[in-house]
Amino acid sequence: MPSSTTRFGGSWKYSVADLAFLDINAKSFFRVTAHYGFMESADVKEVLQKCRDIGIAARPLDTSYYLGREQLIPRRGPWKKRGLSMNIARKKLFALMSRNARSATEYFQLPPNRVVELGTQIEF
């Protein structure tokens, strides 16, 4: 069973050789870390294909993907009188932009029927 982590670095692009590193923890559990530059798009299917190429059975439709999701709730801050809080209009704009952002399922090109989203509400 592979576990994967995706990291974005300061470089604009990483070579294909830097894409996946394996840390074998047991006979059936592998940790795969994929490195991408900020100009690259993450593709989990490509990482799973690399795993299959080196002999790790990783099938996209037999894998569950766990993602975190946040819902931002703008509130007037307790520090409003002291000038330390963000303006409520800016908070609402930021929350709107966050809601309209592309989902992690789309960004990582994951099969939607295999994704489990765990969420939280964050007041700011």
- Radius of gyration of CA atoms, rounded to a whole number: 19 Å
Fraction of residues in H or I helices: 10-25%
The ordered H/E elements are EEEHEHHE
Give the overall pLDDT as a whole number: 75
Tell me, what's the shape? elongated
Q: Which structural class do the helices and strands define?
A: alpha/beta
Give the CA-CA distance, first to last residue: 38 Å
Strand order of the largest sheet: 1-3-2
User: What oligomeric state is this?
Assistant: single chain
Strand content: 25-35%
Largest sheet: 3 strands, mixed
The total of beta strands comes to 5
Give the number of helices. Answer: 3
Q: Which ranges are low-confidence, i.e. pLDDT below 50, for 5 or more consecutive residues?
A: 10-14
Model description:
This protein is an alpha/beta fold and 124 residues long. 22% of the residues lie in helices and 30% in strands. The protein has helices spanning 44-53, 88-100, 104-107; strands at residues 2-8, 20-24, 30-36, 65-73, 115-123. The protein has a three-stranded mixed β-sheet, covered by helices on one side. Strands 4-5 form a two-stranded parallel sheet. A hairpin with a 5-residue loop joins strand 2 and strand 3 (30-36). The protein is elongated and about 55 Å long. 6% of the residues are buried. Mean pLDDT is 75; it is low at 10-14.
